[in-house]
Amino acid sequence: MFKSLFAFRKPLNRRTDLVLGITGFILFLTMWEITVRSGVIRPEFLPSPVAVVQAFVNLFVERNFASDIVISVSRVWFAFLLSVIIAIPLGLLMSTYRFAGAILEPFVDFVRYLPVPALVPLLVIWFGVGETSKIAVLWMGTFFQLILMISDDTKRVPVEFVESGQTLGASNGQIMRHIIIPAALPNMIDSLRITMGWCWTYLIVAEIVAANSGIGHVIWSLRRFVKTPEVMAGIITIGIIGLLTDQAFRYAHTRLFSYLRR
Amino acid sequence: MDNFIQIKDVAKTYWSNDGKIETKVVLPLSMTIGEGEMVMFLGPSGCGKTTLMRIVGGLETPDQGTIHLHGDLLTGPDRRRGMVFQSYSSYPWLTVRDNIKFGTRYRKDISAQEKEEVTDHYLNMVGLKRYADFYTNRISGGMRQRVAIARTLASSPDVLLMDEPFGALDAQTREYLQFQLMDINKAEKKTTIFVTHDVEEAILLANRIVIFSSRPARVVREIKVDDILSIEDRRNGTADMDRFFKLRAEILELIRAEYAHTLEEA
Ligand SMILES: Nc1ncnc2c1ncn2[C@@H]1O[C@H](COP(=O)(O)OP(=O)(O)OP(=O)(O)O)[C@@H](O)[C@H]1O
Ligand SMILES: [Mg+2]
């Protein structure tokens, strides 16, 4: 039993995986509770897990937190999809035609390194404090990363796949549709999953700086009253949503690409 | 048809990335290959066999010279020249059967019904019927290479280009595939260029063996194996062993001499 846990670079069975994952959380919560009870840290700074759970419930009952969650999730998905539908064709174009790569790559690399938080004031000047500027922040933060990731994913398709397609009589368009895209798809879905994570990071940036709704706004406005349990509940909400989204992506990945399993 | 494939004055030079070091890979080289002929390329490692084969396949452009197939000037890759690569190029997102069927996908000369039949025909020929619905990462390397060969055959190319297709396989699988290739050749008489490092494999399969010099590749010797050992004898294992070993020794000596040049240069 123990020996199988330490099998070098071998997968565990699903049950064990799940149990270990939950154990990690329980360990963390226990340490937390112990720290609070020991009284080393004042509860204004670190409330107990129980207080956070209470605050979590309060948020829903008293502050209509559910609607903030819906707003944040919609913003994330809207910006995410907007990034995806533009980045995929451009990424494919970039990896396929040298000229497109030559034109886009230096520019994309440049923008990619601009710190998104620093762009927020500019985006607010351009788009105001409405929804547009928030979407713009998320989009700026993800699009330029995603386009390079998609381009890399397709570049990594083995040359033999493309060349065998050519000698089987496929046209360039057919090679793209029938070989390159199916070959790169598993990695592309992974890239989307990672991008989704960044969306949440930038969402909070956007909502803290300029918003009157959404999870980030709730967290930031409660901070002023030092409602630490509520602030932590808000943060944990994001963690939970992130975890669920990530798991959904992973699940879809294993279902769609069962052929990758050995 | 004797000059089914006509390679004329083909030359290729590679340049290092900074454009300073040139590597002449193929000297102006001419050669003809007859219809239905099985030609084996032998030569020291790095001499330019793959390069020449890729030029014939249209995957590499020569700096000069031309390739004609059946009198047509060839420019890029197409279905007339099917390539089997050394690395396994079967598609992981398709099952064994769908991989083979992919070979028929761009054919316009047969109906959808016939495509199914062709697929089953080659599926059986390479002995993978039982694995038809397996994805290719669940089958062995040898099976994957059989999938790649069947897929290429299903596309019905005029010329089959095989670059050390059995190089990474174990001895038994290799032998099994060699005999399968002989069967295919008997049934269909496919014009084939086959690169190998295995002299016995070359003698077993060839109508003609072409031995190349060290880089840049030029033809050192051509041997019509058919004149020495009949193809039937080789297939049935009744070939004269004395002649076989004499031929093998002669070829090995030629390659060894060329290989020595490669080392001197390095
Ligand atoms: N794309 C390339 N760019 C630069 N040099 C190359 C390229 N492809 C091949 N070469 C060089 O050309 C020479 C011939 O290569 P090639 O692959 O044709 O040899 P080969 O005869 O097939 O060797 P082997 O038997 O080891 O497969 C080698 O010295 C190699 O380094
Ligand atoms: Mg080679």
Automatic annotation (TrEMBL), chain A:
Xref: PROSITE patterns: ABC_TM1 (PS50928)
Sequence ranges assigned to domain ABC transmembrane type-1 in this UniProt record: 69-249
Coarse class of the protein's main subcellular location: membrane
A Pfam family matched in the record: BPD_transp_1
Subcellular location per the Swiss-Prot or TrEMBL entry: Cell membrane
Function per UniProt: Probably part of an ABC transporter complex. Probably responsible for the translocation of the substrate across the membrane.
Protein name: NitT/TauT family transport system permease protein
Automatic annotation (TrEMBL), chain B:
Organism for this UniProt entry: Ruegeria halocynthiae
Similarity-based family: Belongs to the ABC transporter superfamily.
Domain ABC transporter residue range list: 5-239
Keywords: ATP-binding, Nucleotide-binding, Transport
CDD domains: ABC_NrtD_SsuB_transporters
Gene Ontology MF: a single term: ATP hydrolysis activity
Keyword Repeat applies: no
InterPro entries, sorted: AAA+_ATPase, ABC_transporter-like_ATP-bd, ABC_transporter-like_CS, ABC_transporter_ATP-bind, P-loop_NTPase
Protein name, as recorded: NitT/TauT family transport system ATP-binding protein
